[in-house]
Fold:
Amino acid sequence: MLGESHDLRHEFPDLESRIATLRANNPEFARLMDDYDALDSRVRQVEELGNPVADETIEELKKQRLLLKDQLYSLLRA
Structure:
């Protein structure tokens, strides 16, 4: 859905305490999460504002967000 939040706590509610622990204690995880949150915010802004953006641009942003989410999930499951 357009403008839907994809923050990690929303995506992985069963891992909320693990997310908080890693964010506080793992600098790499915290950096990736910051990058993910910023990218998610950018995607939502593009979708919500309805400004003309090439389909390829929004799809590339979403692919980047998915790649970051995969990296974060790997760290959560390690």
Observations:
- The chain has a mean pLDDT of 89.
- The chain has one domain: 8-77.
- The radius of gyration is 13 Å.
